[in-house]
Amino acid sequence: MMVGAGSAVEAVDLVKHFGPIRAVDGISCDVPYGVSFGFLGPNGAGKTTVMRMICCLSVPTRGTLRVLGMDPAEDARKIKANIGVVPQCNSLDEDLTVQENLILFSRYHSIPSAEAKRRTGELLDFIELADRRHARVPELSGGMQRRLLIARALINKPRILVLDEPTTGLDPQVRHLIWRRLRALKRQGITLLLTTHYMAEAENLCDEIVIMNRGKVIGTGAPRDLVRRHIGRFTLEVPVNGGTAEREVRAGFDGSSCRIERFGDRMYVHADRSETLTGGIEALAGYEPVLRPSTLEDVFLKLTGRELSQDA
Predict the structure, then answer these.
(1) Residue 287: closest CA among 273, 269, 299
(2) Domains of the chain: which residue ranges?
(3) Could you tell me the CA-to-CA distances from 122 to 142, 160, 183, 280 in Å, in that order?
(4) What is the SS3 assignment for 12?
(5) Mean pLDDT of 209-220
(6) For 216-272, how does the pLDDT look when each residue is reduced to its tens digit (9 = 90+)?
């Protein structure tokens, strides 16, 4: 894979071993500046390991990695100074207020006191927590704490913002608020790197994604391009309970350009045109079929498998 010049992150044949385990097994990716780039995959796919290497928290076994044009092995401090990290787990200081958490973190980046106070005020307005600036962390809801983590990661004005499962466990209103804020950050030129298990989140936020499984990249591209390439634009989902129903579904689309798969008590018929599927709906009316747009989740399950992995 050729890596372009001036990329925020460049990886070529990146490998990371933990003893006999190949957590990352020869991945390559090129993340341009100012985009939102997602790493998707089941648990144990290697996503977090890749993020840790980008954040200079883990050393590659071999391969080439450049972050902001620098080598993590030689320029870790400079890279860290230009990265903001939003971890999956809450790491806020519960003994401090909202405002104090940001001020304290600013000291790790040697930000002058007056500047730290100014940035803190701006960030609290940005994440809509200005009215809770004097509240302690335990007094905040889960969504508020997540927004505070994002504000903390922005205190050093990073060029890259790394987000590990940014909206896990949050209600839809908070999730959409965070999505709006992340899109605003991208418009400001900040490069976003995120992992997520929410396919709707990846579709809403990511310009490009890589899908990983067992340490390897098994799919890459823009979300809608991946859907068209691997699934087709439309899916007919048919509940089935036995062999007769499956035979009827397959017979109804025999000779067509559809792609058909079965998992458990569902059959999925994929096609590029809805008209290809509508003809079979009436014949299968007894099974209550549902015609819907195909999603990134369809792609994810096709490429990584529908069975539960041992690492899940």
Answers:
(1) 269
(2) 7-221, 232-293
(3) 21, 19, 17, 56
(4) strand
(5) 95
(6) 999 999 999 999 999 999 999 888 876 677 788 887 777 677 888 888 888 899 999
First-to-last C-alpha distance (Å) of the chain: 30
| Domains 7-221 and 232-293 in one fold | no
- Quick one: DSSP state of residue 165? S
Residue 310 has a pLDDT of 53
Residue 111 contacts residue 119 (beta carbons within 8 Å): yes
232-293 belongs to which homologous superfamily? RRM (RNA recognition motif) domain (3.30.70.330)
To the question of domain 7-221 being in CATH 3.40.50.300, the answer is yes
Interatomic CA distance for residues 42 and 279, integer angstroms:
35
Higher-confidence residue: 28 or 261? Answer: 28
Q: Which residues neighbour 220 within 8 Å (Cβ) at sequence distance 6 or greater?
A: 29, 208, 209, 210, 211, 226
Q: Which is it for strands 160-164 and 191-195: parallel, antiparallel or unpaired?
A: parallel
Per-residue pLDDT at 4: 40
